[in-house]
Amino acid sequence: MSAIETHTNNAASAELTTPDHTSPADVDAARRPSRRRWLIVGGVVVLVVAAAAVAVTAGGGDDGEAAEVTPRRAVEATTQDLVEFDELDGTLTYPSTAQVGAATEGVVTSVTADGDRLDPGAVVYEVDARPVTLVAGDVPPYRVLESGTEGDDVRQFEAHLASLGYHAELDDDGDEIDEGFLVDGVFDAATTEAVIRWQEDLGLPETGVVAPGDIVVASGPVVVSDVLVEPGSRVATGTPVLSLSVLGESEAFHVSHAGDVELVAEPGATIASGQVLYTVDDEPILAVVTDADVELDRDLGPGVADGEDVEVLEQMLVDAGFDVAGTLDVDEELDDVTAEAIEDLWESLDGTYDLDVTDVVRADQLVIVEPGTVVGTPTTHDGAIASGAELFSTTSGSEARVVTSAIAVDEQDRLPEGGTVDIELPGGEVVTGTVTQVAVSSVTDPTDPTAEPMLPVEVTVDAVPSDIAALNEVEVTVLVVDELIEGAVTVPVTALVATGGGGHAVEVVSADGLSTTFVAVEPGRFADGMVEVDGIEAGTAVVVPS
């Protein structure tokens, strides 16, 4: 399923559809017959010169003129592996591509261009001058978001607003004013005010309400892979407008404090439990790395009631190395050993920060971080910031692309899922791919009743050359191994000499390099300017034109 999602909600939604298994590309692939070609494994091998250049007399005429000398050289017959490939047509494209439909009926007044990269917050297209923008996430917009609404879709949109800076207002001096905005999944008054500021900047009616058709949701930045309409075109609700391909996934980390915030963790580093993640007004805030569903909403010290939050704190103290004696029990009880570990924690930081060494951890000194969180690009802020502001963002992605092709139903075992295959790119460069999907339903060419049923195949390519990395819909060739000959003796094709009766020979150089002899050979497979021969051994020096 595509990572891009949006929703159709009568006349007020942006529709996105994912092609089914019988897509035009699948049908096109079914029309393409396979071809065969022999290649030398590893490419053309540079042959070693075995003797000095051989000057061969081509012969003189009866009139006594000097004979013409043809410059030639000697090369060694080489042992190589030959492989016969079946060639299948394929198309290199992005791994996650889907169509975006028009949110409402009207005239397309603006649309992004083919090949444009769009980050969250960008305008994807406009109908009747009403912009539809990109939001990072994985929850499709399926309902109206308004005051009182709660849920993951609200949290997703709040994170989007915070990443764009709408979590707070700016005063006359340009400093952020805390509006009490939190990324908490609750559409409250602060969320409504942020939505109004967002709508004002986009030129939308300032209602404080987000309709499903106002946004397109994708898991991260995208590239426009195909524009299907031109500005000025009239569209109906759901009419395909363009196709988007996801490049990666966006994540954002939001602070839960207000004040002068400074990121301490280094970009690119994985956050560890117990480390100082950031400071607020020069006071350190510690990361508690856990996937436990727990709220750290009370101060933790001697005398507190048992609880899961105590257990999470104790695990953080152990992970950070403050259980030197190995006597701290990770349970729900904050005993004397736990209190001593808390004191050791604050003592370790007292030299860097001006702290009171105590056996208590306040709730506002801790922040929960999901395991594996990597610090990405820091978000720039001027002066004090409000709680809910984005501290840093991370976009995960890769250069992986996919090749779509098709293979005959009775030959599907030659491309098993998980198997590797060679992909020949434009210009002749060959890269390796992994078969990630073989369809269970075949497709045929509807224009040819006699066409052979084919199974669509998807191959993931980890990296492509930079000269075509930005291109989409690139025609490539999938090389499927049909036969492998190991240790074949090969010589350049130009070494073959035709003999009477349709035979062939090669001209072999003597051991001292002073004479040559023709030796009969039986040609075999031809590959990359080389030919397999039977009749001489590897290492034999044969004559070829210079």
What topology emerges from the helices and strands here?
Layout: E1 16-17, H1 24-31, E2 35-40, E3 49-57, E4 69-76, E5 78-93, E6 97-101, E7 106-111, E8 117-118, E9 123-127, E10 130-136, H2 152-163, E11 168-170, E12 176-178, H3 189-202, E13 215-218, E14 222-227, E15 234-235, E16 240-246, E17 248-254, E18 261-263, E19 276-280, E20 283-289, H4 308-319, H5 336-350, E21 366-369, E22 377-378, E23 390-397, E24 401-408, E25 420-424, E26 430-438, E27 454-461, E28 474-492, E29 496-498, E30 504-509, E31 516-527, E32 530-534, E33 541-545
Parallel strand pairs: 10-13, 20-21
Antiparallel strand pairs: 1-6, 2-5, 3-4, 4-33, 5-24, 5-28, 6-16, 7-9, 7-15, 8-14, 9-10, 11-12, 14-16, 17-23, 18-19, 19-20, 22-23, 24-27, 25-26, 25-28, 26-27, 28-32, 29-30, 30-31, 31-32
Key features of this structure:
single chain; 546 residues; mainly beta; six-stranded antiparallel β-barrel; 33 strands; disordered N terminus
